[in-house]
Amino acid sequence: MPKTIEEKKAYLKEYYVKNKERIKEKRKIYQTKNREKINQQSKEWAKKNFEKNMDKVREVRRLKKIKYKAKDPQRYNELLKKWNLKCQRAVVEELKDSYVQRLLKRHSVIKEVPQELVEAKRLQILIRRFINEKRN
Amino acid sequence: MKNVTELREQLSQVFYELRNNTVKHTDAAELANIAGKMINSAKVQLEYYALRKETPTISFLASEEALLPRKAKNESK
User: How far is CA B73 from each of CA A114, A116, B5, rounded to the nearest angstrom?
Assistant: First the structure.
C-alpha cells in the first residue's frame, strides 16, 4: 500500500490510466441517472461561488459571445435585438431609477436628479398607471 | 407638504388607499396631478440653478434631517 501523498497520487493516476474506459462509462451512467440532481448541485455551486469566480465567468461569457457571433452573425444580431428590447421593456415596467431619471431629465439641462425627487416621481407614475388600469 | 419626503409619504399613503379601495380614483388622480406639478416646479428650480451654475440647498428637496442644525443632529445620535 502507498504511504506518502505522492505515492498515493501516483497510484491513483496509474489506476485511472488502467481503468479509464470503465471509469468513464460508470460516470456516464451515474450522470444520466442523476442528471437533475447534478444540474441542481452545479447551479447552487455557481450561485455560491459567483463573486469568487466573477472574472472567470465574464471571460467565459465573452469568449462564448465571440464564438456565437462568428458562427451565425445574423441570428446573433436578432437575438441581441430581442434581448435589448426585453431589457428596455423591463426598465419601463419596473420603473427603474434610470427610466424615471430619464423622464425627469427630458427637455432640460439638469445633469443630476436628487434621489428623493426620483422616488416621488416613481410613486406618482405608479398611481397614474394604477388608475389608468382601473379605468380600462 | 413642506418637502419632498412628506410628498413621498403622502403619495405612498394614497397608493396604499387606492389599492384598498378606500379612496376614489378621481381623487387619487387629482392628488397625483398636484404631485406632478410640485415635482415639475422643483425641476424648474433645479434647472434655474443649473443654468446659473449655482448649488444652493433647495428647502423642498432637502430632507428634514439635512435641515436640522448640527447640534440637534448630534443630540439625536
Answer: 22, 20, 18
In eight-state DSSP terms, residue B60 is T
CB atoms B46 and A110 under 8 Å? yes
Q: Kindly identify which residue of chain B lies nearest to residue A133, measuring between CA atoms.
A: B25
- Give chain A's domain count: 1
Taking an 8 Å cut-off on Cβ atoms, the answer to whether A127 and B63 are in contact is no
Residues from chain A that touch B31, judged by Cβ atoms under 8 A, are 127
Helix or strand run (H / E) with residue A50: none
Q: How far is A101 from chain B (nearest CA, A)?
A: 11
Judge whether B47 and A117 are in contact, CB under 8 Å.
no
ipTM, two decimals: 0.80
Instruction: Say if A135 falls within a structural domain.
Output: yes
**Cell triple for B45:** 428650480
Distance (Å, whole) CA B61 – CA B43 = 10
Residues A80-114: tens digit of each pLDDT: 999 999 999 999 999 999 999 999 999 888 888 99
**Does a structural domain hold residue A46?**
no
In a domain, A118, yes or no: yes
**Tens digit of pLDDT for each residue in A16-64?**
999 999 999 999 999 999 999 999 999 999 889 888 888 988 999 999 9
Q: Which domain holds residue A132?
A: 95-136
